[in-house]
Design brief:
Blueprint: H1 15-25, E1 28-30, E2 36-38, H2 44-54, E3 66-70, E4 83-87, H3 88-96, H4 103-112, H5 127-137, H6 144-154, H7 161-171, E5 175-177, E6 180-182, H8 185-192, H9 196-204, E7 211-212
Antiparallel strand pairs: 1-2, 3-4, 5-6, 5-7
Helix pairs in contact: 1-2
């Protein structure tokens, strides 16, 4: 059988023997933080193997959009009742549920990604890429459910007087858009027929012909 952990059961193989073999190569050891983990399979791969052996018609294959999820979040518990097949995006969301990064961690992550450390620093999207993004977003409508969620999240939040003053100053600040001078972003929006967010985004991106005066 080897160490091919993403696999389906082959003809004539005994499931229990396969699991016993993979258990033997995934020796349990303790990591630095005291938690147990398997040496080769890193827990998850053993769960994938077990799922695939018992569910040959619905396997989780390498490179697919699906993963095997430990229901009780204990990656050492590979009981079949504790495993389920899930979309990768849903799986990640489940593991992040209820977890919040501390202000210190957020500040550290922000500092690491600033300036030249950012992998996208100095890079600009080609017009072809921009057109593709634009085409993919055209015609998309936010569902009523999503609108309700956004509304609920914003309720009760108050904008500080300082923030209001800043927004007001920017709103009525003269702007150059498409090499034409306008009294404000609002006026540029009305004349050019472009979304105000698009104009502000072009200004921030330092696109030629777009800047605050």
């Amino acid at each position: 059988m080897g160490k091919r952990l993403f696999r389906e059961i082959e003809a004539g193989e005994n499931i229990e023997e396969c699991l016993a073999y993979i258990e033997s190569i995934c020796r349990v050891r303790k990591s630095k933080n005291g938690k147990c983990r398997r040496a080769y399979g890193k827990n998850y791969y053993f769960a994938v193997l077990k799922w695939n052996l018992y569910n040959p018609k619905d396997p989780v294959l390498k490179g697919s959009d699906y993963v095997v999820h430990h229901i009780n979040l204990n990656s050492m518990n590979d009981d079949l009742n504790n495993l389920e097949k899930k979309l990768s995006s849903t799986h990640n969301r489940d593991h992040r549920k209820g977890k919040r990064l501390s202000a210190e961690t957020i500040a550290k992550k922000s500092a690491v990604m600033k300036g030249e450390n950012n992998p996208n620093y100095g890079k600009h999207r080609s017009q072809k890429t921009k057109d593709k993004i634009s085409a993919s977003n055209k015609g998309k409508k936010i569902s009523l459910e999503t609108k309700a969620k956004i509304s609920a999240a914003k309720k009760g939040k108050k904008t500080s007087l300082e923030t209001r003053a800043k927004l007001s100053a920017v709103k009525f600040k003269p702007v150059m858009a498409n090499f034409i001078k306008f009294a404000s972003v609002k006026e540029a929006t009305r004349v050019l027929g472009v979304n105000p967010k698009t104009i502000r985004r072009r200004i921030l991106a330092k696109k030629p012909g777009y800047y605050y005066i």
